[in-house]
Amino acid sequence: MKKMPERTCVITKEKTLKKDLMRVVRDKEGNVSVDITGKANGRGAYLKKDKDVVEKARKTKALDRILEVEIPESIYEEMLNIIEER
Hints:
This protein is α+β, with helices and mostly antiparallel strands. Helices cover 34% and strands 26% of the residues. The protein has a single domain (6-85), classed as Hypothetical Cytosolic Protein, Chain: A, CATH 3.30.1230. A hairpin with a 5-residue loop joins strand 3 (21-26) and strand 4 (32-35).
């Protein structure tokens, strides 16, 4: 049986399968992006694929603190679009 990788959501602190989370990455230049592949270089934070979780992250600015950079609104919109496409 193959071991499935697990990661922890930075908002809910819930340990979940990596495929059920989305990753937001800050690269060395300070650019922030949503990492769909889960393999991009840089500091990453995982969020559960849930609208409420994304809205809570936006409201509390938790990603700003974790990634130590201001997260643009476009990143939150992109995450919400990914959730809607599921």
